Design the sequence.
């Protein structure tokens, strides 16, 4: 069997970047996507340096036509789409509910929810016709356990989990699996922005049973597993990779 074709949105930093590297090391053919040409082309070159066939395609997941083009160009380049990782996301502006606005809501939901919906729409369009495929969305522990000061982000991840389960039901009969990974605190720029200060970050991490933040590589390995044939009987599930956070 030829190497699987994997598409990753939000691939240029953090978990997305680690996931692209992890798939490349397995021998997959990888398409990485984001909104910054220089970083995207550099990442594609790095993946090719690992021996993988890799391409960067610029796309904004909030734009239906750009997501359609991203998926169609992936299929035109490699002939099929075996796995997709919908990682593009933003934490928005943390703060209490009373400080949120229509603008702060839209900024988060257009990327985290609409972006996931449009990505699922076009990825499933191809996979349903193939009769196979695996999609992994990125959620968060706040999709299960709300965090004060993160109302809009929390709501967006509840929505991502709902989309995941609905898409899984719609794809199952055609051999298309849809799951999500829900990370806890992970050592990324998003965690730094969300906590704001070293003390807040330390307090958040200190509350985890494992007493440390996760690494992007650890989350990437969970994603690679869910996307693989090793998880062939798993669909509609939200896999927590959270240092024990949801066990407390």
Sequence:
């Amino acid at each position: 069997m030829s190497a699987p074709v994997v598409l990753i949105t939000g691939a240029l930093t953090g978990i997305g970047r680690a996931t692209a590297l992890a798939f490349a090391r397995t021998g997959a053919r990888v398409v990485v996507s984001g909104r910054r040409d220089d970083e995207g082309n550099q990442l594609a070159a790095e993946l090719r340096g690992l021996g993988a066939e890799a391409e960067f395609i610029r796309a904004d997941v909030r734009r239906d036509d750009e997501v359609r083009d991203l998926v169609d160009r992936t299929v035109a380049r490699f002939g099929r789409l075996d796995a997709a990782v919908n990682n593009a996301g933003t934490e928005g502006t943390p703060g209490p509910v009373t400080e949120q606005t229509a603008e702060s809501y839209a900024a988060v939901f257009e990327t985290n929810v609409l972006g996931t919906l449009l990505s699922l729409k076009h990825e499933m369009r191809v996979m349903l016709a193939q009769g196979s495929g695996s999609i992994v969305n990125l959620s968060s522990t706040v999709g299960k356990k709300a965090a004060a000061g993160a109302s809009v982000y929390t709501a967006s991840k509840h929505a991502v989990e709902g989309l995941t389960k609905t898409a899984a039901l719609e794809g199952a009969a055609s051999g298309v699996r849809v799951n999500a990974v829900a990370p806890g605190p992970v050592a990324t720029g998003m965690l730094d922005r969300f906590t704001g200060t070293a003390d807040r970050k330390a307090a958040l991490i200190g509350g985890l049973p494992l007493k440390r933040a996760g690494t992007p590589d650890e989350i990437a390995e969970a994603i690679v597993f869910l996307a693989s044939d090793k998880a062939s009987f798993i669909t509609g599930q939200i896999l927590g990779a959270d240092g024990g956070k949801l066990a407390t």
